[in-house]
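Moderator note: this is an archived Q&A kept for reference. The question asked for a predicted structure of one protein chain; the sequence and the answer are reproduced below.
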Amino acid sequence: MKKLLLIVNPAAGMSGKKPRVFRIADWFRSKNFDITVMTTTKKGDAEEFVERYAGQNDIVACCGGDGTLNEVISGLVRSGIRRPIGYLPAGTTNDMARTLNLPSNIKKAARIIATEKPVPQDIGAFNGSQHFSYIASFGAFTQVSYDTPQRLKNIFGHFAYVLGSIRYVGEIRPHHVKITWDGGELEGDFIFGSVSNSSSIGGVLKLAGSQVSLNDGAFEVLLVRNPPNILEFQKILHDLRHRNFRNSYLAFFHTSNIRFEFDAETDWTVDGEYAGKPRVVEIKNLHSAVSIIRKEKRPSASGESK
């Protein structure tokens, strides 16, 4: 009998799902799991639960959004405890769930936890003290994810982010920054930057399976230079949607370490949560720092994952 710690965030996109989440505990028991369910009431609870109780369990699982998963991962990394992670996606955008190819149906996701094996995954260290599972970003629209009220996210889903972003279009400002990484350097005015380990960014930008590996020791970095006019801005958005990174205002590359030096304090988000206004940011790849239970994707002949 395996011992399973299930951490539930009832606030994360749970419209209509809450009763099913707690019924799933009975399903795990029917599959011979000794399950303990803990419910979060505030930010930081999931990380605290993991640090206190992960060592007493064989598997640590969470039901919530990407932010909940981030707390579970951070708790494991901080504590130094190695346990397989199970994820029941119940958030709004669920970028990480898309990347992991996990179903949005909670019972189907539970079956994966019960039957599949853990797969190693890289994690990001943000200025040494914070961790992220799929993205750290600054600039245009990053404020939307933590400014949009949870009740709107629950009601409107990803459309809530679209609604929220509209009011920020006129407020996009460039950030002057010097960027250095393994073998490269850039300096200039940028309106957006992200360091990610995900095939889905904000539920809008999709990276091809051949462009992303979750366990290769490297991040995918996307930088958007400040365009001179609205026509160039529209072309940037078009090229991003079509994954055309040959646009001169875009930079896309892979690296295991990267450093940002800004002229002024700059807002950052980590897995959709506010991460402060640092002027200097150093991000390092923690290779195979955690293991997540999922179906491992197989590369097809075209190089895509499936």
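Archived answer notes: The first strand starts at residue 2 and ends at 8.
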